[in-house]
Structure formats: C-alpha cells, structure tokens
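Lab notebook page, bench 4
Experiment: in silico fold of construct C2
Operator: M.H.
Input chain length: 513 residues
Purpose: comparison with the prior construct
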Amino acid sequence: MRSARGLTAATALLLPCLLTGTPTAAHAVSDAVSDAVSDKPKEPSPPSRMSAVGGERLGLPGVQIEPRAGAGAPGLPDSITSRAWIVADAETGDVLAAKNAHWPLAPASTIKMLFADTLLPKFDKDRVHRVSREELLRVGPGSSMVGLKEGLTYTVDDLWKGVFLRSGNDAVHALAELNGGVDKTVREMNEHAGRLGATDTHVVSPDGYDAEGHVSSAYDLTLFARSGMQKPDFREYAATVRARFPGDVEKGKDGKKKRGTFEIQNTNRLLTGAPGLEPYEGIAGVKNGYTTNAGSTFTGVAQRGDRVLLVTAMHPEGGGLSVYKETAALLDWGFEAAGKTEPVGELVPPEGASDGLGKNTDDRPGNQAGGADPQPAGPTTPTASRTHGASDGAGTALMIVASLLVALGAGAYGVHRHWPLPGMAGTRGPGRGPQGPAVLGSPENPGALERIVTRPPAPGRPEGAASASGGAGKASENGDGHGGGDGDGKAAGSGGTAPPEPPAPPAKDAGTP
C-alpha cells in the first residue's frame, strides 16, 4: 500500500510535466517515482557533526586528509568503499587520514577487542572453568562458536584462544560468567571505553552480537586495538595463526578416558590468507567482525620498516574479502604517505596515562598505561612468536617479518609523544625499532631490544604444522562429551592432529567473516 500510494502521488506530479513538455522536471519527478516504488532502504548518512575527540576535523563528515605542501603525498586508493575508516600511526598517535571517524556504527566482533582489553588482566591463564548450560544458552542464534561443551572444563588460556582465533561467542560468555555475568561485564566494558576516551561506544552485547544501541566507531575501535596491543597476552593471541583446542573425552584402546584436541585457525584473513587474498606482509592482528546487520568490520596493525600503522575499516560495500582488501590498500597508502601528510587528528591517550613523564599518574588496578599489564622487573622469554599448543613457534603470524617483534613483543605501542610506556624515555636507537620496557631486552642490556630470528620447524614437521601436544592438557578431565564444533557448524575431531584447513566461510551472524 505504501508503494502504491507513493506511485499515485508521484504520477499526479508527473502528469503536468509531461503535458507541458518540461523534460528536466519530468526527469526529476521520474526519479521520485523510482524512489517511491523501491523498497530498498536508503544508504545511511553520517551525522553532520560528530565527536571532536582527537581533533575538530575528525568530527566532520567525509574524508579528512592534509597533504604536506610539496611532499608528493599519494592520493587515496579509489577502491575504498567503507562507510568509515581511519589510518593512524600506532606509535605517535597521529591520524594520517580518516573518513567519518566518529560515526557510531554496529561494530560486530571487533568489539571483542574491548572485551579482551577489559578482562584479560583479571584471570590467571591456568584457571579452569567448567562450562554450564546457562552460559551456552546466552549465545545468540547463528553466532560463531569455538565449540565449548556443557559440563567440560577449559582453562582461561583456552577460552582466550577461542575468542581471538575463532571469535567464539561461546568463549566470550564463558569468560563473562567468570567475571560475574554479562551485565557486570558490559558495565565494565563501557567504563573502560570511557577511560580510553572512546566516547562513541555503547556496549550492549559483550560478544558484538547485533543489539539495539550497540555501536562503536572507527576511531574508538582503533583506541581499543592500541590499548590492547600494550598487553603481551593480547599481542600474542592476536598474532596466533592456529592452535590446538580441547575436544571430547573418549575412551582409548586401553579403556582409559582421554581428552582429545582439534585445530582452530584465526579468522583474520590478512593474517592467514584466503583464496584470492595473500597474507599482508607485516600484519600482526588485530580483529575482524561480521554480522548481517553490521556487515564487515576490521582493525589491523602492521609494521613496515620503522613505522607501525593501525587501520580500521567499517561497513564496506560488498562482502567476502572486501574489508581486508580495503584495509590492505589503506595500509599501503599509509606507509607510502608517511612524512608526506600533516596529521588531521590524534589518538588520545587514556585517562590517567602519562603526559610525557614516563610515569603513570593513575594508580587504579588494571589501568597501568591505559589498562596495560604491569611489566616484570627483568627480561622475560619472548612468547609472541609461537603457535599455541605447538612447539618451535611454527605457524605464528609474526614469522612473516622477524623485525615486527621488535615493536610487538616489546610493548612498543606505547605512544612516545602522546602516551609513553611506564619508565620509557621514548627514544629510538639507530637502526632499531621503537624502544620499550625490558620485555624482550637482553640480560646484558635490558633496555635494548633484540631482533628476533624465527626458528626453523622441528625435524620431521613441515613448516606451519601444528603439534598434537599441548593445548588441552591443563583442561583435561574425565567426563562425557561429544565432538566439539570448530566455529563454523562443522563437526570437529575428538583427538589427534587435524590437518590445517583453509579459511572457513562466515556464519550467518557469526561476527567474523
């Protein structure tokens, strides 16, 4: 009826134009007829005025870019269709270019970056959790799932693998239960977003499942990624390509019950690659997302030479690999444009972060350097270059470029000018990446960073192959169970070593393409 009434009204307007032979008016009204009979929703437009956090220009609609005079700045890629995007220097916080940076949009599973940044410091990785039926019932229909089973136990480490690699909403709800429930978790996520300066974000669902009023922005998602990358565990999970995950408990040939494992693979296609898409050189995370309402979203971090960039792209036209291709194009542009553009804004430091004194002024628990984990007093063994549950580090994304670990493993996302890490002078040594606290420092000189040489695969194991050991050992228990899911609705093996699988297609409301 609505279309019929619109057609009648439009025809009444069109008739005088046709009789008087006014082609321009007739053409204009014919467009109105087309709009009236079409049920296709109009493309949404950004607000005319948005938040000015990080700079006035970031609150304006449309593309914001400022080429430096005479520097020969490259033009932006023509292929970018995302409704909102941002390109920022992860170290200085400078925003090199942006489009609708503060437009509140559905974030899908990229909101899991905020979930992880909020909850990661709270629980010991070895803590064991038994999954309840109630937790699984809270997972929305069509969600991506890692395959948790009611009544079986998983370590916190297992659950975080499920969140980062498979974008498992079941793992999110298990961790939320550990945290005191969904309501408490959502409240803490919103509070943490506020401390980070993410004023466009309102969390309704901790897993990113579509909900009324559940929004974030390209700017805010970039803040979440930047804060999360301050945490060693966050960096390691985000960079892991594949891992072993606990499966069923079954009787072996000896009659004893044993917990099997199956392989899970990261859903970040710039990390793993996919048919028609090569892994992006220098990529190290962070998070992708997809729902039928939000479409695709993605935040990625990559290093080229001494420069580390963060890019977020939200809601591109088309589906499939579009968001990855557009992110890669924006990263390429950002690396080429380095030093050739003026900043159009900045990523603000979190509440209580140091203003350049190398000292955090906020003593609240969990808020060191914007929520970063407290750093140990001395050097520790680098862990970001290994595959979870496998030996020799085979299969980890950071094998792409060894020098990337200089920034990632050392927590060098401390923004030296605007957000320095605790105890840092914020300088760079010649020929080295950004300096950071002594996470990867050598015993002789804990303040200096070492180039990490990736290790070859173990004898007899092809590069990238996963070991059957590890992953489920801590969570192993006697009990009943059935084959766990791999997050794509397929049955997963209950034990042994599964061969690596190609990237799986998206679930309907999975949160991850």
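Observations: The mean pLDDT is 72. Residues 403-453 form one domain.
Next step: discuss at group meeting.
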